[in-house]
Design brief:
single chain, mainly alpha, Growth Hormone, Chain: A, globular
């Protein structure tokens, strides 16, 4: 019953594992007030539980990533799905806010394992354009989750109450345990297994973080995510409080901008398969992100920011981010294949920690009247990502391209001489 890595079903399975975070975050958002009332607390406490969820999501992969390098992706992914399942059911039966917070922390940890190992498995099995295309297609599937999760959460809340939402999440975790157990083969070759001895772990971290190529591409990916997450976190403030959208219209507009991520993922996958250089896609995505975020600042300064003028720019930004992230992430993991779990976990951890800082900064600079604060945060992260790319990554790409041309010419000369 194993699923072939080249099949669409394989990408669907990995996409479902990577979709655990948006599902478990967005499905519960409509139930914040009922949860607080049932557990005798304030809605702010439910928000704190979400913060704990993000802490679990950001930090657990740093542990589970190296474990997957030692014991393999499959058993660790099964453990993450089991933790997600158990935590969902724990939230469903929680009788106090303290218990609910603890289970949310564990739920975030389980979700983080799925995201990190889905990326690492792709790196284990594929190289070059195949790896980038598959990561793009997986991202397309993952981006479906935030589009449907809030509506799904509302339906479940109406039909069965808030506890049913977390029971459904627990059931999703159980389904993933079965799917991974039956359908997924181990992707780590036995000779690539890494030791968990402290000295070896430190050596592996040094090898990953000391690799200049990894650092450059990883930083581009992380800063790009900061730009995207600032918008995601502050989107209700922007569209409802500032631009006057109703909650229902906001849901539609947020789904539309998320659709930009899907379109970009499909385009990136197809262009990679057609042989378009990843450096060109990465540069185009960076340029588009920078341009659109600066246009958002300009609209804010001119007082011309409306739903009609802002929404196309946000669509363009999510489209551009989906060009940057898969190419930068795969390029970062390329030179460290033997520790892909560790390398992927570092990127995910840094993305979410920086994303939390970006969302807090966007909230801090929000003036209640214009999108200028959010626009400035987004453009700041876009500018930083662009500076890292052109200052550190692009020169490396040019040297690599030059070396490849010299190698081809030398090979051609050898053939002609013979």
């Amino acid at each position: 019953m194993r699923i072939r890595p080249e099949s669409a079903g394989f990408i669907v399975l990995l996409g479902a594992c990577a979709a655990m975070p948006p599902l478990s975050v967005d499905m519960g958002q409509p139930a914040m007030s009922p949860i607080a009332h049932a557990l005798g607390s304030l809605p702010a406490a439910v928000a704190y539980a979400l913060s704990l969820y993000m802490v679990g999501f950001a930090t657990a992969p740093v542990v589970f990533g190296p474990l997957s390098d030692r014991f393999g992706r499959r058993p660790v992914l099964l453990a993450g799905c089991a933790l997600f399942c158990m935590a969902g059911l724990g939230c469903a039966v929680a009788r106090s806010m303290t218990a609910f917070m603890v289970w949310r922390l564990l739920e975030g940890a389980g979700a983080g394992v799925g995201t990190v190992l889905a990326v690492a498995i792709i790196r284990d099995l594929f190289e070059g354009q195949m790896a980038r295309a598959r990561l793009s297609y997986m991202s397309v599937l993952t981006s479906l989750a935030p589009m449907i999760a809030p509506t799904l959460g509302v339906w479940i809340l109406v039909l069965g109450g808030w506890r049913s939402i977390y029971a459904v999440l627990g059931a999703i975790g159980a389904g993933l345990i079965v799917a991974v157990g039956l359908g997924l083969d181990e992707s780590v070759a036995p000779h690539k297994v890494q030791s968990l001895a402290p000295r070896q772990l430190l050596a592996n971290y040094w090898r990953v973080l000391g690799n200049r190529t990894y650092r450059g591409y990883a930083l581009v990916s992380v800063l790009n995510f900061g730009c995207l997450f600032a918008y995601i976190a502050a989107s209700p403030l922007l569209m409802i409080n500032t631009l006057g959208a109703s909650p229902r219209l906001y849901a539609y507009l947020f789904a539309l901008t998320s659709f930009g991520f899907m379109v970009g993922g499909v385009a990136n996958g197809r262009l990679n398969m057609r042989g378009v250089a990843p450096s060109r896609l990465l540069a185009a995505g960076q340029a588009l992100t920078m341009t659109t975020s600066l246009l958002l600042v300009l609209l804010s300064v001119m007082g011309a920011a409306t739903l009609a003028t802002v929404t196309p720019l946000l669509f363009a930004i999510t489209f551009a981010c989906s060009l940057v992230s898969p190419n930068a992430t795969m390029a970062a993991l390329h030179p460290v294949p033997e520790t892909a779990g560790m390398a992927s976990s570092i990127i995910i951890c840094a993305q979410w920690l920086l994303g939390a800082a970006a969302s807090a900064l966007a909230g801090l600079l929000f003036d209640g009247h214009t999108p200028r604060g959010l626009a400035e945060v987004m453009s700041g992260f876009a500018l930083a990502s662009l500076a890292v790319y052109w200052g550190f990554v692009r020169p490396y790409e040019r040297r690599l391209h030059g070396a490849e041309l010299l190698a081809k010419r030398a090979a051609a000369g050898t053939i002609e001489g013979s």
